[in-house]
Specification:
The chain is an alpha+beta fold. It has 2 helices and 4 strands. Strands 1-2-3-4 form a 4-stranded antiparallel sheet.
Length: about 150
């Protein structure tokens, strides 16, 4: 094996470790950048739809693109907004799916894109719908549980 760093006075294993360290640091920076984008999008959605319920679902592919879907549903069970992010790199961004607005939550699968993306969308949308149901169930619980004891017989 030839030394990539021949002539630089750097042993090959040291150079290889340096390359891995740089790639690792770039991955950390890219992940932080993508998380900042996610937080920005969620902040916009929460600010715009204060009375709705939000669900986030994902669908992963072993070799293909991953997909994340954010669904906002109003109290009347009508979808207000859907944003979808598809890709396998840090450069993927959320984009709105306008045709989903106005649909009933149960009918969201009908607006799935064609092809493989549609399969991932249906799975991610169903996971987001499950989150919406859990959020609504939590919201209907009383703030403080009742500590009343049953009456003695």
């Amino acid at each position: 094996m030839t030394n990539l760093f021949h002539g630089l006075g750097v042993p090959s294993w040291t150079g290889l470790i340096a390359v891995f360290a740089v790639v690792w640091l770039l991955q950390i920076a890219g992940t932080a950048w993508q998380m900042k984008h996610y937080q920005k999008v969620m902040g916009e959605i929460i600010g715009r739809w204060a009375d709705g319920a939000i669900g986030v679902g994902n669908a992963r592919s072993r070799l293909g693109k991953g997909l994340i879907v954010i669904v906002v549903v109003g109290p009347d069970d009508v979808v207000r907004e859907v944003r979808m992010m598809e890709g396998r790199s840090i450069f993927a961004r959320f984009r709105p799916l306008e045709r989903a607005a106005g649909q009933r939550l149960a009918d969201l699968a009908a607006v799935a894109p064609d092809g493989r993306t549609g399969n991932g969308f249906r799975l991610a949308a169903s996971r987001a719908a499950e989150q919406v149901a859990r959020a609504r169930a939590r919201a209907s619980l009383p703030a403080e549980p009742s500590l009343a004891l049953p009456a003695a017989a």
